[in-house]
Amino acid sequence: MTVLLEAHHIDRFRSVIAQRLGLQFDESKSGFLAQVLQGLLDGAQSPESYFNRLGASAPNSEELRALAQELTVGETYFFRNADQFRAFGERVLRNRLDAWRAERSLRILSAGCASGEEPYSIAIAVREHLSDLSSWNIEILALDMNPLFLERARRGRYAPWSFRETPPEIQARWFRPARAEFLLADEIRSMVTFQAANLIEEDPSLWRPGRFDVVFCRNVIMYFTPHHAQNVVARIARSLAPGGYLFLGHAETLRGLSHDFHLCNTHETFYYQLKDPADVAGRLDRAPELTLDQAGAPGALAPIVDAAGSWVEAIQRASGRIDALAQRPPMVPVAGARASVGAGRAPDLSRAPDLSRALELFERERFGEALTLVDRMSPEAARDPEVLLLRAVLLAHGGNLGDAEAACEVLLRVDGLSAGAHYVAALCREGMGDSDGAAEHDRVAVYLDPDFAMPRLHLGLLSRRSGDREDARRELEQALDLLQREDPSRLLLFGGGFGRGALVTLCRAELAACGGAP
């Protein structure tokens, strides 16, 4: 008998999934959830009784395993995102080899291993870079909550499609044909231990302090609720040995989740290294939010930008704006605005330094006066990430690029995941003639916050100046889309004194100049 499902059943199902598995499904997935729920119910079972069973079931119960089997995605392949495996082999293993060699021990976790391609790729990379493993204790633990995935992983048999990014010589060395599939060599299979586990469950034996040297948790936390994602990252940080490394998926960042890691950028990819405990102990736990609006600045930007040597110079050359800006009424808070312009963290208004007067002066382009106010703040307030960021922006707009870059470096020591700091550093690098360094900082800012419009715009301007029209069009098109929904507080701080309309017009003009649609 088919059970007639109603909207409240789907809402309850979504809530139970988030509670027991940590997975987040928005309203657009309601049809999918209805289909899954319908398939899990038997003819004699009501949705309510099923939900009650799920809520009361043990973490590794058959009920939860069956649910995980229906909801989790197993799309993967060997050496997926090969640049990360190059960084793992050529940078991580090389940098940490002396420390690991002293103990003859290397402990790696693959969290969310699916059908095993990732942990086996890790094992192959270890064998390729560490020639003599006879006296080493190599532990590669692979976790997943889907039992079917684990069963397939243990078999070590893979179809040709799993090798679409595998170098032919690697495949020939570690696999042999087995009818229509390829069988992994026993010496690689024996390096990996598979275990059923739900990452959101607190398991002291799994997450014991300092257990792992490297953790791969790629394309996993993006499916969790924010609360569970934050808790999973905290467990990973606790389980990493000092100086340990964390690899996330290309679409994932720790922004807003953790401040326990330094961002690493090599081999054209991003990954993280655990901070020294002293750095973590001294960090600021919260940052205030800026929630102030900015009116659009008048004037066409494109001719100014084209005549200037850099985006910072264009901002400084845009004379004629200042008198008009000075006539604007004082800015007012945006009703209900809650988005931080800095690290993207939740606000702690009880500790937030009062930046309203400095921001008002900043909006009126009275940078020197605003900087004086910031410099007069108490030592405790001066260490706040938002204060540090505002100081860096003020210095940059005032033309003090060396001091602005130094301020960015101070901020990045406090909060290495500040997209704003990297964007301001990009302006400084360009202003000092280092376009490649500017582009690198912009790319880090985009990685840390894909919705941040200004580094996209800056990358587009840099590419157009260098003659790369295709790259310029790509970046400017994304900047144009993002600018139209950018948070007003970020436009205030990073827009160079120009409002949304002026920046959108600039994007369209630059796109037209590149041969793109205006």
Explain how this protein is built.
This protein has 518 residues and is of the alpha/beta class. The protein has helices at 7-20, 30-40, 47-56, 62-71, 82-103, 117-129, 147-155, 168-174, 186-189, 226-239, 277-281, 302-307, 311-317, 321-326, 356-363, 367-375, 379-382, 385-397, 401-414, 419-431, 435-448, 453-466, 469-483, 488-494, 500-513, and strands spanning 105-111, 137-144, 157-158, 175-178, 181-184, 192-196, 212-217, 240-248, 261-266, 269-274. The N and C termini lie far apart (57 Å). 43% of the residues are buried.
Walk me through the topology.
Elements: H1 7-20, H2 30-40, H3 47-56, H4 62-71, H5 82-103, E1 105-111, H6 117-129, E2 137-144, H7 147-155, E3 157-158, H8 168-174, E4 175-178, E5 181-184, H9 186-189, E6 192-196, E7 212-217, H10 226-239, E8 240-248, E9 261-266, E10 269-274, H11 277-281, H12 302-307, H13 311-317, H14 321-326, H15 356-363, H16 367-375, H17 379-382, H18 385-397, H19 401-414, H20 419-431, H21 435-448, H22 453-466, H23 469-483, H24 488-494, H25 500-513
Parallel strand pairs: 1-2, 1-7, 2-6, 7-8
Antiparallel strand pairs: 3-5, 4-5, 8-10, 9-10
Helix pairs in contact: 1-2, 1-3, 5-6, 15-16, 16-18, 18-19, 18-20, 19-20, 20-21, 21-22, 22-23, 23-25
